[in-house]
Amino acid sequence: MQNKIILGDCLEVMKKMPAESIALIYLDPPFFSNRNYEIIWGDAGEIRSFEDRWSGGIDQYINWLYDRVKEMHRLLKPTGSIYLHCDWHADAYIRVMILDKEFGYENFRGHIIWKRTNAHNDAKKKLAVLTDTIWYYSKSNNFSFNPIYSELTEKYSCNFYKYDDMDGKGKYSLGDLTNTRPGGYNYEYKGYLPNANGWRCPFETMQKWDADNKIYFPKSQHQRLRIKRYLSETKGQLIGNDWIDIQNVQGTSIEKIGYPTQKPLALLERIIKASSNEGDVVLDPFMGGGTTMLMANNLQRNFIGIDQSIAALDVTDKRLQANGIFTNYEIEKHYFAEEDLRAMDPFEFETWIVGKFGGTPNEKQRGDHGSDGMKDDVPIQVKSWKNKIGRVEIQKFFSVCHAGRKFKEKQENGLPVGYFIAFDFAKEAVQEMARLKNEDGILIERVLVSEIVDVAKRPVVRIDCSKTLDGKYEFRAVSDSVIINYSWDFNYPIPAHKFPQEVGKFNPSVLYDKNGVRVHNFAEGGVHNVAVRVVDDKYLENMAVYSFGE
Ligand SMILES: C[S@@+](CC[C@H](N)C(=O)[O-])C[C@H]1O[C@@H](n2cnc3c(N)ncnc32)[C@H](O)[C@@H]1O
Fold first, then answer.
1. Is the shortest distance between the CB of 46 and ligand 1 below 6 Å?
2. From 89, 211, 285, 538, which residue has the greatest number of CB atoms within 10 Å?
3. Closest residue (by CA) to atom 7 of ligand 1?
4. Residue 262: CB within 6 Å of ligand 1?
């Protein structure tokens, strides 16, 4: 399974995903309340104001979310679970009008209260809201769950584990050995009797624990036997639904990436550990800054993240890279850079584009005269050449098609006898295909790469520089494309005339700025290279470098 981060409305993306393929879904959708992040990032997907988006009130919000939760239900495996993060504005509506309906009241597993703040700003006027709600449902009664434990606090350990036999086994607490309900085991053990419910274990187990020195014998035989529970053996304290020990991301937290509404990694760690196992697929359909993706990866789960905001994809991509995760995920965006596709290894490109076209790629590389794959029982030819495809290539491909098993049948039915995929076809190639069709009824279908995937050129950018009145430098990134963010490195190690520029050496001090103008002061003279990395509205990026000084 390939990890993915995908650009798009999660509803549309999820519709294309296979049913029952996901173990765990965490979603942190735009709250019915949240106005902030919709304007902070201000890219194409987020530009609508709160009033526009939810002008139909709570009903509109609930319908919008319901459509998406319905898809999530379809995607979950029968053993899977969903955690829906929301707040007081809509949590009751979401539970009753969406989750109970789609997942069933009987599959409600928990109402998690996450204490996200201590701020009591409005506490003098009313009760301050310090918590968010996370609804936890499973798809069926047979759901996967790993109990979660919190580390014991020192105070708790001291108060609870207060006995010590000084035999090197350390501190222990004493647990009850009598059954909580009638129906336990009734026997006398070394003169000690149980209560009316009986002991909770059979005689042999009691003997074994006794041999292991795990039974506590009170002085008086009128008291009950107890079991010793050692601190060194405990996994911690079992966690319930009151999650008050996870701090929200603070201004100074190391994990803060500046994505509005970013959730803490510890919150996702708890959810992912509880409701998935290594190798499972975790989905976050409102990925934001990629918190779920990073934690899923850290815990050896696979991940799929979806967000309609280009900025979210960009932030997540950079966040994963900053955490040393480079190659094990794919970014699915609407547009592919034509330059990158043309530069791909030809065989790799053939395999990839045939797959995107819905065909089956040839496993073996065959050179120019074979086919690169099959679709509808006819051959596919792929060429990623710089030059346009000419008449000769069409004639060569015709021979391949002619040798095909289904050639006659397809010709007689007026169906394609082969598909030719390329970036561009010369006029002669188009004429040759038309001739085959008109004279012999042979249809070779011409397919442009841009008809299979969205292809665009990378944005072209340059830096203009001028001096300000107070002796600083003003840099202006200039591009004809619609740029959604600019990142700047004022100490880039490679001069402008040395190509190619290396993204790996780009170490920006300004990240994802919305404004393409920056004023900078250099403390020392000498040569300076200033680099800008831009991302356009098709999520394609490019760099420019400006060098000056001596
Ligand atoms: C509350 S934020 C998620 C924050 C995230 N949990 C984190 O820790 O960074 C909600 C995200 O949902 C995205 N979003 C809103 N509507 C969407 C849609 N229809 N499909 C996919 N993503 C959407 C927004 O762009 C935003 O990034």
1. yes
2. 285
3. 262
4. yes
Chain mean position to CA 18: 17
Count other C-beta atoms under 10 Å from residue 441's C-beta.
Answer: 12
End of a domain among 233, 257, 276?
233
- As a whole number of angstroms, the distance between CA 331 and CA 325 comes to 13
Query: What is the pLDDT, as a whole number, of residue 140?
Result: 98
3-class secondary structure, 257: coil
Is the confidence at residue 456, as pLDDT, over 70? Answer: yes
Q: Is the CB of 307 under 6 A from ligand 1?
A: yes
Are 276 and 405 within one domain? Answer: no
Residues in the chain: 550
pLDDT of residue 152 exceeding 90: no
74, containing H or E segment:
helix 57-75
Report the alpha-carbon distance of residue 497 to residue 527 in Å, rounded: 13
Quick one: 180 and 106 in the same domain? no
Q: In what order do the strands lie in the sheet with 360-361?
A: 360-361, 373-375, 378-383, 416-422, 443-448
Question: Which tokens belong to 292?
Answer: 């779920």
Number of C-beta neighbours around residue 407 at 10 A: 19
Residue 134 belongs to domain with CATH number: 3.40.50.150
From the centroid of its chain, how far is CA 206?
50
Q: Which among 226, 236, 225, 122 has a CA at the least distance from the CA of 174?
A: 226
Tell me the two tokens of residue 286: 């409102």
Is the CB of residue 418 less than 8 Å from the CB of residue 397? yes
Q: Is 9 in the pocket of ligand 1 (CB under 6 A)?
A: yes
For residue 72 and ligand 1, the question of a CB distance below 6 A is answered with: no
pLDDT in tens, 284-301: 999 999 999 999 999 999
d(CA 189, CA 180): 18
Asked whether residue 97 falls in the same domain as residue 188, the answer is no
* Same domain? 143 vs 91: yes
Q: Number of structural domains, the chain?
A: 4
CA gap 475, 473 in Å, rounded: 6
Residue written as token pair 């619609």 = 482
**Cα angle 478-483-484, degrees, rounded to a multiple of 5:** 140
Beta bridge partners of 84: 27, 135
Substitution site in 270, 286, 291, 333 for ligand 1 pocket (most atoms within 8 Å of beta carbon): 286
Task: Return phi, psi of residue 153, to 5°.
Answer: -75, 160
| Per-residue pLDDT at 33 exceeds 70 | no
Global confidence as pTM: 0.67
Residue 221: which domain range?
154-233
Residue 369 contacts residue 396 (beta carbons within 8 Å): yes
Last residue of a domain, one of 233, 260, 280: 233
What radius of gyration do the chain's Cα atoms show?
32
Element (H, E) at 411: helix 407-412
* 448 and 462 fall within a common domain: no
pLDDT of residue 143: 97
